[in-house]
Amino acid sequence: MTQITALMTDDHRSCDEAFARAETAASKSKWDEASVALEQFISALESHFDAEESFLFPRFEAATGMTEGPTKVMRGEHAEMRSALERMRDALVRKDRDDYAGEAETLLILMQQHNMKEENILYPMCDSQLPAGEVSAALGERLRAGAQ
User: Fold this and answer.
1) Cβ–Cβ under 8 Å, residues 35 and 75
2) I want to staple 103 with a disulfide (CB 3.0 to 4.6 A). Which of 58, 70, 85, 88 is the partner?
3) Segment 60-112, tens digit of pLDDT
4) CA-CA distances (angstroms) from residue 64 to 3, 44, 60, 67, 130?
5) Closest CA to 104 of 120, 119, 90
6) Which positions fall inside the Hemerythrin-like domain (predicted)?
7) Residue 105: which domain range?
8) DSSP letter at 1?
């Protein structure tokens, strides 16, 4: 695994852990805990999305000239996931465990499919087209700043 791929894949796993904490709390009807955990997950995921959308994707597009390819698809999937997150927030406000579980399952499937495409296709393409050391260092800084 190369630098960008490794860094961003590790961040996917960190987001997955935050997602699981929120899902576990909601499944036990621990609403306050679930709400805090969901907000932590959303913050981590938004930090990840921002690192991609405002930094990694524009550099990849500039290096390859591909603006209608994988980065466009990933941005569209980010929008779908953001919509699912809003529905999850709403379910928590209503303390609807079943609705939350359904939305969480939808988001989990979206994330799994999305992450597979990034980890197996887009990130390796970024590693091959970009100065990986320089880019991964800047991405790491963005991810750490977003996590605080």
Assistant:
1) no
2) 88
3) 999 999 999 999 999 999 999 999 999 999 999 999 999 999 999 999 999 99
4) 19, 28, 6, 8, 9
5) 90
6) 4-126
7) 3-147
8) -
Q: 123: domain CATH number?
A: 1.20.120.520
Two structure tokens written together for 100: 């939350």
Name the CA dihedral angle for 69, 72, 77, 81, rounded to a multiple of 10 degrees. 160
CB-based contact 26:100 (threshold 8 Å): yes
Report whether 18 contacts 44 (CB < 8 A). yes
Q: Which of 55, 54, 58, 75 is nearest to 66 (CA)?
A: 58
Specify the length of the chain in residues: 148
Q: In Å, how far are 40, 45, 64 from 21, measured between CA atoms? A: 10, 14, 38
DSSP 63-130: HH--SSSHHHHHHHHHHHHHHHHHHHHHHHHTT-HHHHHHHHHHHHHHHHHHHHHIIIIIHHHHHHHS
